[in-house]
């Protein structure tokens, strides 16, 4: 007869396999199945693929996160009243320039008429034609002499504007003064008559930023305020 007690416990290490759970390995959460092949390495920090779609930069910003470049400086004289070069007075206004030229032309034509009166009759066309041509020539000499002296004619003094060199604002030298006067008068004498002056004026109206007429472009001059 067997003497085994079925209610008795097996002695420790009795040779039977044990099905008790093994303690979790280090680094593995409790209750999580262990991977016999090992877990993949974690992604590297700072990878652009860590959080796809999570872009924190500013679209349109320059590389490196720097501030956008400042706007380019404004060109001198681009705004009404701004001097062409630093330290130069503001540009002369169109009303003052036009009135000054008109005053000068009337003064010179009056002198031409007085000079022609003893030699021609204004009852005939010849008298007026002669006075007109003489007035053109006198205006050329008048402008050249006056502008090379201080940059102002009588009309410009009255309207408080003056002619200055674009480069530095100085009084025009003789070459610039006579070039300016010739470009203003000679085309009217040889081809265009009175049509030349509206063309010359309109060129200056649309010129940017210094509002130079054709005669100013030729002489490299600009008209500024003398206030």
Average per-residue pLDDT, rounded, comes to 76
Structural class: mainly alpha
CA-based shape: elongated
Assign a percent range to the helix content.
40-55%
Strand element count = 2
- Please count the helical segments: 6
Strand order of the largest sheet: 1-2
Uncertain runs are 1-6, 47-55, 75-81
Query: How far do the termini sit from each other?
Result: 140 Å
Strand content: under 5%
How is the main sheet built? 2 strands, antiparallel
What would you call the quaternary organization?
Answer: single chain
Order of helices and strands: HHHEHHHE
As a whole number of angstroms, the C-alpha radius of gyration is 47 Å
TL;DR?
With 227 residues, this protein is mainly alpha-helical.
Question: Can you put this structure into words, describing what you see?
Answer:
This protein has helices at 94-116, 125-150, 154-159, 174-192, 196-206, 214-219, and strands at 161-165, 221-225. The chain has 227 residues and is mainly alpha-helical. The chain is elongated. The N and C termini lie far apart (140 Å).
